[in-house]
Specification:
By secondary structure, the protein is an all-alpha fold. α1 runs antiparallel to α2. The two termini are 26 Å apart.
Length: 65
């Protein structure tokens, strides 16, 4: 997978960061099963990444032009 522009790189970094921070948060606050923690954090990071990619990144692209 080749990343075309900086917006895609930023999105990837953002999603990865959200994923890792959510896992860390869940481990600190709860005693759920690991499978449930991974599923929750993956869903949350995909959701925030999608919002970031489709709403915030296009705004940044408009400002660059």
């Amino acid at each position: 997978m080749k990343l075309k522009n900086t917006a895609q790189k930023q999105t990837l970094v953002f999603i990865t960061g959200m994923f890792l921070s959510t896992i860390a948060l869940e481990f600190l606050t709860t005693d759920y099963s690991v499978k449930r923690i991974i599923i929750y954090s993956a869903a949350l990071s995909l959701l925030t990444g999608g919002i970031w990619y489709f709403i915030i990144a296009p705004i940044g692209k408009r400002k660059e032009k």
